[in-house]
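$ run holo --ligand "manganese (II) ion" --emit tokens
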Amino acid sequence: MGVSLKFERIKPKVGARVLNTKEELLSGELTGAINRLIEDCGVIVFPEVHFTDDEQKQFTNTLGNLANEVFGAEVYNISLDKKLNPRAEYLKGSLFWHVDGTMNKVPIRLSLLTSKVLPTWGGNTEFSNCYTAYEDLPEDEKARLADLKVNHSAWNTVFYYDPEPAQDKLEDLVSMGEAELPLVWRHASGKKSLVLGNSAHYVIGKNPLESKLLLNRLREWATSEPYHYAHEWKLGDAVLWDNTGTMHRAMPYDPDCGRLLHRTIVQGEPSLAA
Ligand code: OGA
Ligand code: MN
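-- output --
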């Protein structure tokens, strides 16, 4: 008998909890079912599954191709503590709604976080389902958004946490370049989602005010209650999100408290064949 996915919805328009055992998750038999569910609910919690790094890599590989993280590592330390992550300063941008790797040539399809050290206070991770938020927009608005393109950059994110940055810090981020992404992502599956977040600088062809008002209104809409889920971490939780159809952010926490998550990523569009 094959293994079947055991899950429950968290909210009608965002989130699910998968309750299969670790062995079932690592067997690879749930690949197709998880890849389908994630495009629907945006984020999946695997409560207290306690993956080791090797198990996390193995599980990630069952979902697609495990890709190298920043600095070539397969498992990346997510922490605002400079001792644990030399890029902790840049991670301050993750306290604001974002999509991972919007500058990458090949998008990050899935990200998986596992909890290693809990924060002393704060530190929930919040998610927003940009598929269902898009679906619920009025049809005339969908038509107006259909062909819009948005300029994204890593340097745009610095102003969220450091409004008057040192020039060399800004120039360093500028060297990461800029990208032009559609405002509405048409997925290989035929589904559509909004692409927003702190790297979204301006809508091509709109004046600065019009552009800001549109991006801000859509961000407020997509992160509103029906599409929003706040994950309060328990040690050993694993949380997977569809990075092409959601946004996420960390809530503030003590940067010196040792809060530590391990991240792995899968690149590219999904193959739903499995
Ligand atoms: C990430 C991220 C949020 C958090 O790992 O990409 O944004 O809560 N993490 O640390
Ligand atoms: Mn992130």
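-- notes --
The first strand starts at residue 7 and ends at 11.
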